[in-house]
Give the backbone structure.
Amino acid sequence: APRTSFNFLALCASNFYTNSIFHRNMRGFMLQGGGMGDSGKGGESIWGGTFDDEFHPDNVHDKRGVLSMANKGPNTNAAQFFVTYERQLHLNNVYTVFGRLLEGWDVLEKMEKLPVKGAPKKSLA
């Protein structure tokens, strides 16, 4: 997923994600962030607006620590991303996988254990 990776790294390099929050934390599912403001939602790609999905059969949500772009439907990638807490095969070919966690496993474990506000959501699995 070369365009997706480039977008994410360019947003990182421009400090876009500095002080952004993780606005969705679902134990056993995923941790989502990368938006703007107090809600953590929204955001644009480095090209402005959104860009197309980049699916590849080798890039799948097959384990803990998969890095993927969040979207609002087909071809709507922008700035938001998520990291899986567990295998989520139903997300394949729906969300573009562009990386895997290499370090910080202890932080991911701590994030998953944090208490969250709001009612539990229905599982998509």
Remarks:
- Residues 1 and 56 are 8 Å apart (CA to CA).
